[in-house]
Amino acid sequence: MTFHNLEKHSRNTLFRFIFGAVPFFVVFTILFLSFLHFSSTAWATDPQPVINEAMVNPDTTSLDGWKNEKWVEIYNPSLLAKDISSWCLHNASDPMNSYEGKLIATGTTILAKGFLALKKSVTGFDPSYAGGVIRLYSAYVNDYSLGFKQIRCVASSLVHELSYSNYGHAGKSVGLSTNGGSTVVEFDIPTPGESNEPDSVSPTAALIFEGTGPSYPRFKVAFSEDVVKSEAENPANYFLENWPGEGGSGDLIGDATVSYDATTFTATVSFISAGWYLSAEQEWGVQNVHDIAGNMLSPNPTSGTSTPMQNPTVTINFPLTGNYGPSTWASSVSGTSYDPAVGSGVTKVEVKIGFGSYITASGTSSWSYSFTPSVDGDYTIYAKATDKAGNAGEQSVSFTWDGKNPFDPTTISSPSHSVSTWSADNTVDVSWSGADGTGSPVAGYSILWDKVSDTIPDDSVDTTSASDTSSALADGSSYYFHLRTKDIAGNWSGGANFGPFFVDKTAPLVPTLDFPSADATINDTTPTLKWFSSSDTGSGIKGYEVYLNDAKVSGGSLLGVLEFTVTGTLAEGDYSWYIAAFDNVGLSTKSAFRSFTIDLVIPSSIIILPKNTVSDSTVYINSWDGIVAGTASDNTEDGGLSKVEISIQKDSNKYFWNGTTWISSASEILLLPSTLNGYINWSYSLTNPTADETYILKSHATDLAGNSESTYKLTVVYDKTIPQVALAIDPASPDGDNSWYVTKPKVTLTASDANFEKIEYQIDSQTGTWLLYSSAVTIKEGTHKFYYRVWDKADNVSETGLKNVKVDLTRPGDVGDLRAEAGDEEVTLEWDASLSEDTDHYTIYKSEDKNFIPNPETELAEVSEGTRSYDDTKVDNDTKYYYYIIAFDTSGNTSDAKGVSVTLSVESPETETLPTLPITPGTVEGAQTTESGGMETGGQAVGSTVGGESQGEVKGEEVSEEVQQEAGETGAGGILGVIDRFWWLLLFFIPFSIALWYRKKV
């Protein structure tokens, strides 16, 4: 059987595996056996608590706090603390059938190897004095069968039991003879919460001294356990071993009282003798005291000191270990002594020399003993200090006595300097050897540096080394070194001298640069650099070095010269240079830095006024105030220009302007224009330049490096003459009627000016874009105004000319539906109007020749555009006539000819429509009007402009607007306009016209 239902309540994979795949009884068996194994092992290896002792018949003689109190003591033999919370005490053999079980309080723990006594008043457990068994269980159950809670111990959880017989020994306890043992005995002295085993350990004592002085007339003794009170309070068991300065020792009978506190195991010894108190370094003791078990104090006696016993300190201040002579000896041995603050105090100091006897010195804390050695050699002095407690401290000093003076060094030299030679090192190194201390070694030297040759140093050691370095010496030429030798006994030599030394630590004065000047611009690629001489107050100037762009370029040092020419060729660019002046000890001083620029770039200038262009060019102007201005530039940021010069020359006579007048000169006369920014911009004013003259202007720029440009040249043509232009048109006169051209005319423009620049024209506008004239202009169909003008190179412009041109290239439409009616010696022609709006009239042609071509000889009649019929009475009966009608517009263009033939006969007249006869333009001429044409020239220009912006006032001839208007009204447009406005009047004429036609037919 498997517990599949467990899978619904657990997501644990392990449980699903165990309970879903393994039979339950197998799992339970494994877990149960493992629990038994673990339990048996744990209980077997870790001892469990036992009932160690119990009080079942108490009385009033029991220990304080336990009188008339039953109790049970539990002992924990384990090395681990045990938590016995809610364990159960019972005295029945079948605890599950008895409700006498009592629980141990929650949180109860017994320490390892510890004892726990549980009072009846606390637990409620009441063991019988008549005998029985006290049992300890580790588990219990609550029983409510009687209606209230009862405790029943679980029999299977029995931990330990203690059996005892009936006894009536009140105040005695029953328990195990040894802690955790098996033998039950009776104890005369109960030990609740303590060991049951006998005490064989001796007590110990510690003497406690809280301080010294009158404020401390007592001391204490702390025992390790409870001791017999009568012994602890007996003054005979306490004693004083020594009392420094006061003498005596012995017990404290009659000198002190003693009180004992059994709870702290402490006895307090209080002095009752007048003037007694604890002093430093006193030794007190205690003896012959037993503990409750009868064990004697160990060690017996036990003693201690009021303060630690310490030897006093003695110090020999003079002499010290070393060497002495007559000049260093102080005539007596001296020193100090000291006993610590907790000591009893120094009573005497004694001194002995070598193996002699101690002799008492004068004083204690500061002491002295008079002694002076008389023979050279080694000595040892001893000093001893003794305090009131008899403690002694000792010190000794060994020294050597020497009464002979040492010798001076045999050799003194300088590794850094030579005598009487200049040096830039102002610290002189000296060394010496051969100094002899004779009787004792050399102790040191007294040294001195000054400017006197034979000074003797003082009697103070400045160095123990055989070398020295002077302090930083000021510039000078008379420094000496002086030396005296001292031996360790304090004896001095006579003295030695060494020098003189010359010191020059000051560099030469700062040299001053001469050429090139600061920030100069030059065009020399091998410049000569120059400077002024420097000076030096010490060793003197030796020479100079030249540095260009921080690199030395002078090679070796330059001696006795104040200039240097750079070798090689320098490239263009910026350079900085300086020189260094150096003196005879090698000290040098740099001059200030200077910069210069090598500039090989030729500057340039441009003349921008009176007009800007390029060099060697010619400009044309029509206005000039005489200002000649321009710009100049160099390759440097600030211009780098030194000057700009100009010349002005007339081309007509080659005269030059000298600033005030024109003169003849074989060479160019240069003028200096004015400028405010270093000739970057410059200008010059020529007085009253003459118009219609050519001037040659030249400019020359020179930069700060001396580079000069090639000449900038500008030829100025000062032209104020207005140019002229002539117009020709082909055909010269209109080839149509009413000043109309019926072919495309061509306009040709011709200018007359020495400085002619361009001809421009516009058609039908003066405000649009002017077109550049280059060849004859063909005029398109329409009515046009042709505007034209001419410019010269000086921007003089002619007046604007005007030519009115009318061009009509469109033929009028043919007449419509030409009809003929023959009468008696009369032919009536009718037709519909031409559809062209500009039809002017109709011309009727007549001939008896079928093949005739309309021409002036065959013209019959000319009728107005509004006519629609014509009666020809110049006919004969029985004759056939041919008629053509052609429409003419106002410009003389013709339509094709519409034809009809008529045969006059009284009996049977005939009419026949003829095919339309094409008419070649120009083959049929009508009456023409002419306009005088040909060459037209523009009039005087009212104004002239620069740049072609102004158009001037038009002064040419043009057809009046009235004439044009009349011409328009006589054309088809005028008739159609009338019809368009009054067409309704025709309604009145329609009935009248029908009646008239009918009457004619009849």
From TrEMBL:
Pfam families: Big_13 (PF19077), Big_3_2 (PF12245). Residues 909-967 are annotated as: Disordered. Residues 935-950 have a biased composition (Gly residues). The chain crosses the membrane at residues 982-998. Keywords: Membrane, Transmembrane, Transmembrane helix. SUPFAM superfamilies: E set domains, Fibronectin type III. Residues 411-509 form the Fibronectin type-III domain. Residues 911-921 have a biased composition (Low complexity). It comes from the Bacteria. NCBIfam families: barrel_OmpL47 (NF047446). This is Fibronectin type-III domain-containing protein. It comes from candidate division WWE3 bacterium CG08_land_8_20_14_0_20_40_13.
